Amino acid sequence: MRILISNASDKPLYQQIKEQMKDAILRDELTEGDMLPSIRNLANDLRVSVLTIRRVYEELEAEGLVTSQAGRGTFVALGNVELLRDSKRHLVEQRIQEVIDTAKSLNISKGELNAMIDILFEEDR
Length: 125
Hints:
Helix content is 59%, strand content 6%. It has 125 residues and is mainly alpha-helical. It has two domains: 13-76, Arc Repressor Mutant, subunit A (Orthogonal Bundle); 81-123. Strand 1 (66-69) and strand 2 form a beta hairpin. Helix 1 (13-26) packs across helix 3 (50-62) and helix 2 (39-46) packs across helix 3 (50-62). The radius of gyration is 18 Å and the shape is elongated. The two termini are 26 Å apart. 15% of the residues are buried. The model has no long low-confidence stretch (mean pLDDT 90).
């Protein structure tokens, strides 16, 4: 898992890290049961405070995406398949809404947009 943070971003560091970790989970780069780096190791790797990483892990745990086990570490949550599927659907819905907004601003009809999606979707197969 590769995390890139930017001091120039408007988003706080913890939020940048959290979003990238969440995306890694949703894209199956991190799968159920995978152990996350220790708070200290990830903080050292990213050159941020351990408090920043602790906040990231706590928020991911509150969202049900990871679980912490005292003395063992933090792991991608098991048994939250439906939650993960719903999160994936939500991610796609957000991207589709962006495409719809762009299409509308360019006066592209729903039919044209659907045709483009059909072509592009089949191209990847």
